[in-house]
Amino acid sequence: MPSHPAVSREEWIAARKAHLAHEKEYTHARERLAEERRALPWVKVDKDYLFDGPEGKVSLDDLFKGRSQLVVQHLMFAPDWDEACKSCSFWADGFERMIPHLAARDTTMVAISRAPLEKLVAFKQRMGWTFNWLSSGGNDFNYDFGVSFTPEQIEAGGNYNFGTTPFGSEEAPGISVFYRDEAGSIFHTYSCYARGLDMMNAAYHYLDLTPLGRHEEGLPYPMDWVRLRDQYQPSPVQASCCRS
């Protein structure tokens, strides 16, 4: 890290307060954006989807578990892959323990991938995850919600992130949100992709507080450093001074 200015505590407080004003501006802008997001129109989901889950075949309605809101993490895991995407797994590690807190606010969260259920179960056990993870390999759910693409779509540039972001792979990350009303009708209310997912990664936000930030400069691509949780090498220990 290059040399950085060091000042007195009083000067630091003054600089920090100036930055706090900008943080408050960002907070208010974020709150306005959240209000705008909640005001977006909805689309009724008329298509029937059946997923493979630990309890057998389940419908989209079943995934709500009696609650009115459903958050789906589109976790990249193609049918012929041996492991889930390392970056999506980074997100999954972050939301693994959120599920009870979301449930307390009438919200169910699940992960959905196209890989067969037996692969999901094995990888889930390896990672120590407990969230509900289902296979959409037998339906068009991933394609309909913009996170899986046919070879023809890839060749044409795909339609990722509402057609704004080229994506050259058959699988892509995303989050989709659904609402179920008292009559049992299901509505698609929101989806986000690409950098829109950053807001849901708590580890990123902790790194953004540090002097080095995400420390991704000079990497082939920003997330090149990310590994599956059980594949990180131990951090080198700084040797203490040798004494004769």
- CATH H-level superfamily of the domain at 43-196: Glutaredoxin
Give the tally of β-strands. Answer: 8
DSSP helix fraction: 25-40%
CATH class of the domain at 43-196: Alpha Beta
State the distance separating the first and last CA atoms: 32 Å
- What best-fitting shape do the alpha-carbon axes yield? globular
Tell me the strand percentage band: 15-25%
- Give a quick account of the main beta sheet: strands, pairing sense, barrel closure: 6 strands, mixed
**Structural category:** alpha/beta
Query: Number of DSSP helices?
Result: 9
Topology-level CATH name of the domain at 43-196: Glutaredoxin
Radius of gyration: 21 Å
Mean pLDDT: 93
Order of helices and strands: HEEEHEHHEHEHHHEEH
The strands making up the biggest β-sheet line up spatially as: 1-8-7-4-5-6
Low-confidence blocks of residues: 236-244
Task: Please tell me the CATH architecture of the domain at 43-196 by its name.
Answer: 3-Layer(aba) Sandwich
Describe what this molecule looks like in 3D.
With 244 residues, the protein is α/β, with parallel strands linked by helices. The protein has a domain at 43-196: Glutaredoxin (3-Layer(aba) Sandwich), CATH 3.40.30. The chain is built from 9 helices and 8 strands. It has helices spanning 9-38, 60-63, 86-95, 99-103, 117-127, 141-144, 151-155, 160-163, 202-208, and strands at residues 43-44, 50-53, 56-59, 69-74, 107-113, 132-135, 174-180, 186-193. Strands 1-8-7-4-5-6 form a 6-stranded mixed β-sheet. A two-stranded antiparallel ribbon has the order 2-3. The longest helix has 30 residues, at 9-38. The two termini are 32 Å apart. Residues 236-244 have low confidence and may be disordered.
